[in-house]
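Exercise 3.2. Students should predict the tertiary structure of the chain below and write it as structure tokens, then compare their answer with the key that follows.

Predict this chain's 3D structure.
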Amino acid sequence: MTRFSQWYKEIILPAGLLSSVMIGAGIFALPYVVAQAGLLPGLFHFVVLGGMVLLLHLMFGEIALRTKEKYRLIGYAYMYLGGWAKAVVTFSTVVGIIGALLAYIIIAGDFLYILLGSIIPLPAVGFSTIFWIVFSLFIMRGIQAIAKMELIMVTALFLVIGIIFMFALPHVHIENFRLLNLDFFLMPHGVIMFAFLGLSAIPEIAALFKTKKGKRSLGHLIIWSSVLCGTLYILFTLFV
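Answer key:
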């Protein structure tokens, strides 16, 4: 294996997978909640909640690396805390993931309908169904296929947002920014926390690391992925 191949499999693919899990539908709600609460509460939540979620990711990554058996969050909860923790985590994970996946499928269908509705005579639910089928096939092919697909999607997302920045820059006006609105101080809390969460990807990322050197770099990978996503969130929020 060449150095580039090893770097690609142990750095680029895992970073793309974690970033893709973190960057989701939540990014589109960020400008609204920060506009309501103000820039100061928005930045406060970005820093505090982003730091808290980063710490959770680092702790979970350490657990995944130090445990010989391969589990997910539910399995780790049962192994280290017992049956009661397994029940609580199972309920929260199932409800949370189902809700998130439904949101992504619905939003994807709406976006595809806006982009392709004039060309392909399908309703939004039809595009959502196609989106679900295509990405289900990638999931059935395993983590390597998912990681490669997510890397492509994240790269495309950064490119699109970069184009938005370019077109939005001449239209940025200082008077559009509100510094503080105490009535909506806590509004960004849930949205920003959801935007940073990527716990479900941590065990999958740990499984991609094969060498001891690669495993030691997991912490740095999580930190840089979180910083990259946080920077993207802040820029997207400010420009929009």
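Discussion points: Residues 83-116 form the longest helix (34 residues). The two ends are 44 Å apart (CA to CA).
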